Amino acid sequence: MTQLPDWVPPHIDMTVPSIARMYDYMLGGGHNFAADRDVVKRGELVEPGLRRIARLNRSFLRRAVLFMVDQGIRQFLDIGSGVPTVGQVHEIAQKAVPECRVLYVDRDAIAVAHSELILAGTDHVGVLHADMRNPEAILDSDEARRLLDFDEPIGLLFLLMLHWVPDEDDPHRLLATYRDALVSGSHLAITHATDDRQPQMMDGMVDTMHRTRSPDQARPRSYDEVHAMFGDFELVEPGLVGCGTWRPGGPGDIAEDAKYNEFVYAGVARKS
Ligand SMILES: C[S@@+](CC[C@H](N)C(=O)[O-])C[C@H]1O[C@@H](n2cnc3c(N)ncnc32)[C@H](O)[C@@H]1O
Prior knowledge:
Strands 1, 2, 3, 4, 5, 6, 7 and 8 form an eight-stranded mixed beta sheet that branches. The chain has a single domain (19-270), classed as Rossmann fold, CATH 3.40.50. By secondary structure, the chain is an alpha/beta fold. It has ten helices and eight strands. The model has no long low-confidence stretch (mean pLDDT 95). Helices cover 37% and strands 14% of the residues. Bound molecules: S-adenosylmethionine (SAM). S-adenosylmethionine binds next to helix 1 and helix 3.
């Protein structure tokens, strides 16, 4: 019998691809299986720049977290946090202000198991195995109570994850529950795949996932649909824009080929 790597929790079907492990592969990580790599490679036949898009999103994550720290945010709730990779939210925030606290949440067992492993012994950081479609299980969890003070502003992150929530689960209603749990001064950051600019490519990506048995099925959304996810929070400048064009600070933040900046919308908004 083949020995499983020690980072694989029991009962994982390695033949079913997961977006957490596919994304890990796109970012050069080692916590993925042949089934995950195969879907990414098929996706790259549709759009060879997939890994570029993933890296642009990670650059946005860093800018958004640093922006929030600058605004006085000292605690973060990162939902759909993924398999840990270089430049985690706590690394960025705690480098700027060591007492920053972070709760990571993901529904993927491997993302959570690996997060637990590498976060063991790290102060002010926790991880929760939960589905964002159950806000109460997250907001009322012991981990949230231990790490987050809901009477103080929180930085809430939903990066490249809301397009995995189908319309029938009503992501707008779910987001309203999360926004309502936050006090004034809190910030919300979202990145979300869109088919506004490159509909054929996005159709091809959606179709590639449809052909798998993965539970992760993408629903790209329009500018108006993503904009509505911020509710009455006020978008900070430059508003909801292509990911690479949100306050780029250097060459790794923005792609020279403009189309790569436009596959994903990005925005940060503040609760007044
Ligand atoms: C593409 S990764 C993004 C990781 C990270 N947020 C980033 O932007 O670098 C999407 C993550 O969302 C998670 N996810 C998808 N649907 C979810 C849900 N309903 N609840 C919690 N996590 C979810 C997946 O398991 C995956 O780890």
